[in-house]
Amino acid sequence: MEHQEYKVVNQSVRKKDSMQLLLGKPVYTDDVTPKNALVVKILRSPHANAMVESIQTDIAKKVPGVVDIYTWEDVPQTRFAIAGQTFPEPSPYDRLILDRHLRFSGDAVAIIAAETEKAALKAMKLIRVSYRVLPAVLDFRTAKDNPVLVHPEEDWFPPCDVGGDPKRNLVASDSETYGDVDGILADCDIVLERTYHTKAFNQAMMEPFTTYADFDRYGRLHIISSTQIVFHTRRILSRALGIPKSKIRVEKPRIGGGFGAKQTAVCEVYPAFVAMKTGRPAMICYTREEAQIAGSPRHEMEITVKLGATKDGRIRAMDLYTLSNSGAYGEHGPTTVGLSGHKSIPLYTGSLEAHRFGYDVVYTNHQAAGAYRGYGATQGIFAVESIVSELAEQLGMDATEIRDKNMIQEGMVMPAYYNEIANACALDRCMEHCRKMFNWEERSKVRDMGNGKVRTAGVAMAMQGSCISNVDVGSATVKLSEDGTYNLIIGAADMGTGCDTILAQMVAELMDCSVDDVAVFGADTDVSPYDSGSYASSTTYITGQAVVKACGELKQRICAIAAKMLNCEEEAVVFERTQVRRINSEQAVSLTNIAYQSQVGNSISAESTATHSSPVSPPPYMVGMVEIELDKLTGKVDILDYMAVVDCGIPINPALARIQTEGGIVQGIGHTLMENVTYNDSGRPLESSFMQYKLPTRQDIGRLQVEFEHSYEPTGPFGAKSIGEIVINTPAPAIAHAIYRATGVWHRELPITPEQIALSQIN
């Protein structure tokens, strides 16, 4: 569908905060908060499963500078969840601020409040704890119906029924079926069944979990935190601390990266509790080790896919089962797992006659998992795309051609995606565009480069969503200021994604002004209109549509004020950039004069607040192709070129969309080839710093090329869909495909390390 030309939308505009960041101005939580706050530190459990028999803090409290130390006996006994989700949360209420029962290595044992970090750390060493070590569930494959219960307590509470049962170590469980799966599989020419395993990758954002707590001039708890979810955090703290939401204010400054980790209120409750107990400001800033061992990583998943197809490559049926490791607490487990099937199976709507999707989410004695860019789709797409590539290789078909034959097309109903219609889908054009630009026909061939090195290529495609349909709410306030410019107030959280700039572009487009004439503020529970928060790729699509509504209403109000000034009916005036003019007349009033007039004897507000939610979540689509060079002797894989073509509807800011895509691809490369999470025999994570947890650098990623294929989503602002999450989903299956073509061995567990590749060549 052809879209109209825009003045500001679909233009590469510089991010509004870019100069502040480049000049090193104070913008993050630790920069903008007072320096007289108490330092909050957490004593953490060395055991994966243990009961605190006794804890002695008397000696530690005598350390000069120590204000107090709190244990499980000092905190409220109301269980809560820290997942940033809309109420009522699908997450079970299974946490206490501090619990006598410690459920993973890194779980909180005591809270230390001190004048200095040095005093807090010294006191931590002097706390004496007697533990009764219990058997631990460390293999998620054995967690379901294990005699060892991670949550044996009787006050475990699920706000929503998602199939959880703590007596079976189940956080959630469900299954769905469309069509006669078993009958069609039995009738297929070829049936493949494979199992894939992905680890609990860490977000490794630049700024770790950081929160400041104090009391404002009205005696209300004031939280300044690096969070994606100011409104959810307020609700979480209200329940955990036992105080009304009206007594809590949460705001966020600039966020130094989140990638989903800060959709979970990982650390906010600790300084909030200290502030309440002491009446003094309190601050917590996780170390990198804490962020690694007690953060909110991606869910470890094992996904079994059974696929049935004809000899000519038509995929008729798919059966997918996901086992997800939620860790010690439920958090995002019930919602993440759904995307492993709902965002992978629909890719093949073009041919599927039947599908089945079932899952179990289990408790284990590992750190709790949470949200991470891709949110379960990453794991599911790795499995589905890998088995489709394997089917192509087994049939002797080109991997792009088998996808052409089976992929979702515009206008199709997607039974595996809540029966939504693909109103805007350029996946076929993405594939063709990528194939031509990448030169797939030549580069997909296996080429011997000498010295045991070979070059070849792999391909994958993906889809995601643009919100949580029928759940997410976005709001925006747009108001006319005295100088004829605009203020945009939002509850969404810019965490480096550039949503402040993107939403300002929408205002500029609709109000026919410059982006520089739009000042953005957010997010603050006292000031911002309600917004679910920045997650689920929802900000551009949901909050953006709220901006569209608010601007439309504001124009009407501006025209109503102007009509009174011009002594005519509202229908007789027209909005024109910097003024409102009377139709068929030279009479006009400027926006500045309208703004001043709105302050004198006026009953029409020169501002508008609008809210939006959507019954659908239109998917963005992507195709990725990668060229690798593989050393068969060492197993080392070098990424030479990664080509991506994305359909995100109409990109509001192509430069920011490109950066999002490049960043997601790099993260996906890291997950595929180097990031690893392993545990010792007692369940302690071994990769507790960046010395052990390897992240990709610029030298690891080769050349990245990103292009866009436009579609027009009728339910989105200016035809836009999302882009934040889909971009991480293609590297793993594409690289795994390329490695197979280079070695003849399929690797079905991530990461695919050089050691694994080299050993596979020997075996």
Gyration radius (Cα, Å) is 27 Å
CATH architecture call of the largest domain:
Alpha-Beta Complex
Name the CATH homologous superfamily of the largest domain.
Answer: Aldehyde oxidase/xanthine dehydrogenase, a/b hammerhead
Biggest sheet strand order reads: 3-5-1-12-9-10-11
Quaternary state reads single chain
- What is the SS-derived class? alpha+beta
Give the proportion of residues in helices.
25-40%
Helix count from the secondary structure assignment: 19
Instruction: Estimate what percentage of residues fall within beta strands.
Output: 15-25%
Main beta sheet: strand number and arrangement? Answer: 7 strands, mixed
How many domains? The number is: 4
Which residues sit in consecutive blocks of at least 5 with pLDDT less than 50? none
Ends apart, CA distance between termini = 52 Å
CATH class of the largest domain: Alpha Beta
Shape label: globular
Work out the number of β strands. Answer: 29
Describe the protein in words.
Strand 27 and strand 28 form a beta hairpin. Helix 10 runs parallel beside helix 18 (731-743) and helix 17 packs across helix 18. The radius of gyration is 27 Å and the shape is globular. It has four domains: 18-26 and 469-612, Aldehyde oxidase/xanthine dehydrogenase, molybdopterin binding domain (Aldehyde Oxidoreductase, domain 4, 2-Layer Sandwich); 33-134 and 203-293, Aldehyde oxidase/xanthine dehydrogenase, a/b hammerhead (Aldehyde Oxidoreductase, domain 3), CATH 3.90.1170.50; 138-201 and 297-407, Aldehyde Oxidoreductase, domain 4, CATH 3.30.365.10; 424-459 and 618-763, Aldehyde Oxidoreductase, domain 4, CATH 3.30.365.10. With 763 residues, it is of the alpha+beta class. It has a seven-stranded mixed sheet with strand order 3-5-1-12-9-10-11, sandwiched between helices. Strands 7-15-14-13-8 form a five-stranded mixed sheet. A five-stranded mixed sheet has the order 18-19-27-28-29, with helices on both faces.
